[in-house]
C-alpha cells in the first residue's frame, strides 16, 4: 500500500526536527505515562488501608511472578516497536504494517499460554518464593485474578509500545493515564464498597487495562494512519517474529534476571528475618514497600527510554549518526537528573512514604524506611546504566544490550546477595546492601561500553 507524502512526513520529522525538541515531544508523554503507571501502586495503599498489613506483606511475594509475566510481554512489545522504528527509518512501510499484526499474534499466544501455566502452578511457586501461612492467602488471591487477565496485559502493553513507535506518543500516554484513572476509580469501589478485598484490587487492574485495550484497537483500526489493523488475519512472518524476539531479548533478560533476583531476595529475607528479631514477613514486606517506591523512579527513566528509542532507532536506520549521538547525550543527562532527584526525595521522606502503605504497623514502617534509604543510596548512577541498555537495544546492538542487562542483575547482584549476608552482623542488611553495591559495579561497565560505542559512531560521521 502506497503512503501519501503527508503520512510519510510525520516519520521523516524524526530525522529532521531539532533533537532536543523531538526528545521532549516523545519523552515527556512517555515519562508522564510511566509515572502515571507507577501510581498503580496506589492500590497498595488501598490494600494497606482496606485489607491490612498481612495483605501488603503477601503482595510483596507476587513481585517475582509479575516480573516473569512482564519479561515475556516486554520482549514482544519492545522488540516489535524497536523493529518498527528502524523499518520506518528505512521507509520500509510494508514490513512496518506486517510488524503490527505479528506483534498482536505474539502477544495473544504468549499471554494466554503463560497465564495458564503460571495459574496451574501458582501455589508451589509462591511457597518457593517464601510465602508463609500468613501471606500465602492474599498473594494467591491477588495473582489468580492477575493471571486470568494476563493476555489483556500483554496486548495492552504491546499496542502501547507500537503507538509510540508509529509517531503517536501522546496517544500512548493517554492510554496509560487512562488505565491509572480507571484503576484509581475501580480499586476503592471494589475494595471498600463491594468488599472484594485483594481480589478486588487485582480485578480493578485487569478491568482498567481491558478498557484501554479497546481504545487502542479503535486507534489502530483507523485506516488513515500509516500503520493500521486490517480486517483479515495477520500475515504471519516468522522472520519478523524471530527478529522481534531477538531485539526484545535484552528487555526479557532484564525482567527475567529481576525475577530471579526478587526470588532470591524474598527467600533470603524470609530466612534471615526469621533468624533475627525483625521477622521474615516484616523483612519481606519492608522490601516490597521500598521496591514499589523505587520502581516509581525507575519507571520515569524507562519512560525517558521509550521516548528516546524511536528517535534513536530512526536516525540509526537513516545513518544520521550525529543526531544519534545528540539524542544519547541529552537522554543521559535527563536520566541522571531524574535518578538524583528521586534519590534525595526517598532518602529525606523515607518514613512518611512508608507510612502510606502500613500506618498500623510501626515495625513494618521502620523496616521499609530503613530499606528504602539503602536502596536509593547509589541511584544517581543508575540512570546511565538503564539508558545504556536501552540505547544499544534501540540501534539493534542486542549483544551489548543483553550483556549490560545481565551485569547488574546476574553477574553482580546474585553473587552479592549470597555473599554479603555472611559479612554483615545483621544478615538482612547484607541482603539489602547488595543492591547499591551492584549498581556501582554495573555503572562502571556501562560507561566503558558506552564510551567505546560513541567513539565508533563519531568515526562514521561524514
TrEMBL record:
Pfam families: MatE (PF01554)
Highest taxon of source: Bacteria
Intracellular or extracellular location(s): Cell membrane
An individual GO BP term: response to antibiotic
Keyword Disulfide bond in annotation: no
Topology of this chain in the membrane: Multi-pass membrane protein
Spans traversing the lipid bilayer: 23-43, 55-78, 99-122, 142-163, 175-196, 202-221, 252-270, 282-304, 331-354, 374-395, 402-424, 430-449
Alphabetically ordered keywords of this record: Antibiotic resistance, Cell membrane, Membrane, Transmembrane, Transmembrane helix, Transport
Family: Belongs to the multi antimicrobial extrusion (MATE) (TC 2.A.66.1) family. MepA subfamily.
Cross-referenced NCBIfam families: matE
Record's protein name: Multidrug export protein MepA
Native species: Alloprevotella rava F0323
Upper classification of the organism: Bacteria, Pseudomonadati, Bacteroidota, Bacteroidia, Bacteroidales
